[in-house]
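Researcher: Structure for this, please.
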Amino acid sequence: MENKGLLLVTGTAVISGFSIFLNKYAVSGMDSSVFTFSKNLVVAILLISILAMFSGNSWRNISLKEWCLLAVIGLIGGSIPFLLFFRGLQLVSGSMGAFLHKTLFIFVAVFAVILLKEKVSRGFFAAGIALLAGNFLLLKMNGLSFGLGEMMVLAATFLWAAENTLSKHVLKRLDGTVVAAGRMGFGALFLLAFLIATDKTHLLFSLDRSQILWILITSFLLLGYVLLWYNGLKLVDVSKATTILLIGSPITTLLSFALSSAAISPAEAFGMILILGGVFLAVYSEGVFVGAKRLFRS
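Model: Predicted structure, C-alpha cell format:
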C-alpha cells in the first residue's frame, strides 16, 4: 500500500511543479485573495460532486468532532496561510519566498515525530541538508534575510505543516477525498469571509474572460493535486510525503528554462541533483542502510 501512496504523492509533486509555473501567469493582474478563493470554490464544488456521485453516504459517517477538525484544516490549510503567503511574497523576493516555503518538510518532520510518533529515518538529516542546499543553488540565492515579509511566508509554511500533520491524523478514519473536500470547502468559506470583511467581493464580478479561463485551468490542476495528495498521504508517512513534494521544484525550473533562451548553469544543475538525491535518501535511506550492512557482512 505504501508504494501506491508514494506513486500518488509523486504525481502530486509533478502537478505542483506545473501549477507553480502556471500560477505566476494566472495571478498576474488579479487580486491574489480573489484568485485563491475562486480556485478553492471551484475545486470544492467539483470534489463535493465527485463524492455525491461515487460516495453518496460518505458524509453521514462523519462525527461532529471530525467536522470540527475538517473546519480547522480549512482554516489553517486552505485560507489563512494563502493570505499570509501571497502578502509575504509582495514584500520579499520570489527566490526568498520559494526557499522559505521549501522548509515545509522540516516543520512537518518535527510535528510528525512529536504528535504522530512517526519514526524519521537515519538518513533524513543528511537528506534535509541536501534538499536545503539544492534549493539554495537552484533558486540562485545570494544570502538570507529576515523581515516582515519573510515572517509572513514562514508563518504560512508553519501553518501548512500543521495542517498536513492534522490531515494525516484525520485520514486514519476519513477518506482522502473527503478530507480534500473539507479542506477546500471550509477554506473557501473562510476566504469568502475575508473578502466580505475587506470589501473585495465586487472584484469577483469584474473578472474578464481571460482571468476566468486561468482560474478554471489552475483549478483543474489544483483538483488533481488535492485528490492525489490526500489519498496518497493516507498511505504514506507525512514526513516522507512532504519531502517528495520537493521534486516539483526542478520541474518548475525546467519549464521556466524551456520558455526562455537562458541555459541551466552548473550550480542550478547540481542543485537539481541534490534535490532528487535528497528526496531519494529521505524516502529510501533505511533500505539503503540495510542493504549496505548486508553487503559489508557478506
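Researcher: Any notable elements?
Model: The chain is about 75% helix and 0% strand. Residues 74 and 187 are 4 Å apart (CA to CA).
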